[in-house]
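note to self: dont lose this again. the chain is below, predicted strucutre after it. 280 aa total, dont forget to put it in the shared folder this time
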Amino acid sequence: MARTVAELKTQLADLRIERPSAPVVFVPTMGALHDGHRALMTQASHYNGISVASIFVNPTQFGPDEDLAKYPRTWEADLQLCADEGIDVVFAPTVDQMYGDRTESTLSAGPLGTRLEGAQRPGHFDGVVTVVAKLFDMVHPNRAIFGQKDAQQVAVIRAMVRDLELPVEIEAFPTVRDSDGLAMSSRNVYLSDTEREQALAIPRALVAAYQAGSEGAQAVLKAATNELAGEPEVHVRYVELVHPDTLEAVSPTFHGHALLLIAAMVGTTRLIDNSMVTVG
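---
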């Protein structure tokens, strides 16, 4: 495990001497690891490279009224999961290691970061691209693996890599779900048993939308909205059908593959989910 950038670089240098042709495969996380993260690490192992996972709860992507202080932290269990998955280096820096006493320069996620989650969480994606760029500069990965559940985050990071011409391949791994269909998330621990049952309206809405795909874009949105409306304790923040790369809303006459994005509050917990839909 590396707690400082210096330790990280030393450990990586030693591994590169041992395996000079091995790619570096990186799984960035904020900890509170679950089987969704485990799947990302299992995927990383398929490349027979040097696997690196980071554990860092990034303060710059939390708004002033968000859950930074209570974000779940399960340090010992996280380290055990990384060990079980054969991660070569766990990088777990402090806030001081990542940002020092103050940070003068940050990145902007641009227009892609101001829609959907970005519209409701101003500055969130600026914090994401800033920390990810810093982590990429420290780790120098050939490939980085993210969960498709955070579809907008993946799109924003891909845009950053393209725009800054970073030599990193971004891989989006399919959303991992619990047996009841709820997308795995570190925030699911906040849900009471009753709230979790209510939250299942979200995956049901995705299924209903998928089944309505042949009827067109408007039918897709209507099917999802109607399913969510059937659970009054799920307070919808948005339901949008968008182009997968640009995240711009599709037209009513659109035909092709589109991404349905849902965000909702269940109790005090914000949940997001998405799925691809073939429209028309």
